[in-house]
Amino acid sequence: MRTEPAVSVLVPCYNTTAFIADALDSLRSQTFRDFETIVVNDGCPDTANLERVLQPYMDDIVYLRQDNRGPSGARNTAIRAARAPLIALLDGDDVWEPNYLEDQVRFLRNRPEVDVVHPNATFIGDGAHAGRLFTDFCPAGSVTSFHTVVSGQCYVFVGVTARKDPVTRNGWFDESLRAAEDLDLWLRLLHANVRFAHNARPLVRYRLRQNSQSDDRGALTVAALRVYDKLLKELTLSDAERGDLAGAISRANAELDLVKAKKALYRGNYAEASRRFTLANRTLQSGRLRLAALALKFCPALLARYVHRRFPTEREYLH
Fold first, then answer.
1. Which residue from 163, 161, 187 is spatially nearest to 173, judged by alpha carbons?
2. Distances (CA, A) of 243 to 141, 176, 187, 200, 246
3. Eight-state DSSP code of residue 113
4. Of 42-46, 78-82, 291-295, which range is least confident?
């Protein structure tokens, strides 16, 4: 009989065949070795090719297949199969630094009051953010709480290490969500007084990919709005928590207007861009947005030329 490992690494796979070998090679390079790897093929459309790529790793992994259920369903399947008291999330297109597990496990062993530790990450792949840190754009704050996450003072990077028991006691990942499912779980755990802490070390290389789910700011904002609405209906909230969620909904709607304004400006629809910038700025109260609205009123073509010259593609402008 094998004793249980210290950590179960959960690796959901969907359209990540081109990158999964890099992810698994990073596991082979870990300085901390007491772990198991659970790879879940979440109904990949190129399963035959994925399994060909996985073949050299089969002795190192537990490989599971299922019909497509989204990232929540894939992670829940992996959690059910996990034998360790700790779980760590690695997406199939990301890469861990060699000391990821050593650092994260030490953190949790030294801080027994903490249940979830979220590290920093370095962007890799497509786009201008490559080489920058996650916290350059998404602050971690000094405290991870329901209030700080909902208010945008703290962002929890998805590549966490967590004690499995609090996750399974507080509802798992919600399989009705195909995006922002991690935000939903973090907020439910925080509302249940599960303790989070931030590890400032950049232990993950987080891949930016064109046309990936995380690349679409508008879709991510819509997904976050769905989460906020869901939590308002499902959780027993204090007046302060309801106020936090109401503020988050207001900011998310403003961010959605900003995305639509930028798209309209880039595509030459100046009237719509002006309307959306004005709507966004009612909540965001930004001098730059006021200037953009003024420029659209008096010299829209000049502003559009500047934007196109500085941002050769719409994707670059939106990010």
1. 187
2. 20, 25, 15, 29, 5
3. T
4. 291-295
Beta bridge partners of 93: none
Dihedrals phi, psi of 30, to nearest 5 degrees: -65, 135
Identity at 166, one-letter amino acid code: P
More confident residue, 56 or 288: 56
DSSP element (H, E) containing 12: strand 7-13
Do residues 318 and 215 touch, judged by C-beta distance below 8 A?
no
| Encoded tokens for 292 | 């953009």
Residue 156 near residue 75, CB atoms below 8 Å:
no
Q: Which domains does the chain have, with CATH numbers?
A: 7-215 (3.90.550.10), 218-318 (no CATH)
Beta bridge partners of 95: 205
The number of residues in the chain equals: 319
End-to-end CA distance of the chain: 51
Integer Cα distance of 165 and 2 in angstroms: 21
148 in Cβ contact with 229 (< 8 Å): no
Strand segments, DSSP code E, in 26-99 are: 35-42, 61-66, 86-89, 95-96
pLDDT digits (tens, 9 = 90+) for 224-275: 999 999 999 999 999 999 999 999 999 999 999 999 999 999 999 999 999 9
CA–CA distances in Å: residue 186 to residues 5, 23, 45, 216: 25, 24, 30, 21
Find how far residue 304's CA is from the centre of its chain. Answer: 31
Among all chains, which residue has been given the structure tokens 């009051």? 113
Neighbours of 57 (CB within 10 A): 18
For 19, 173, 272, the CA distances from 72, given in Å and listed in that order, are: 20, 5, 36
Question: CA triplet 137, 103, 18: central angle to 5 degrees?
Answer: 65
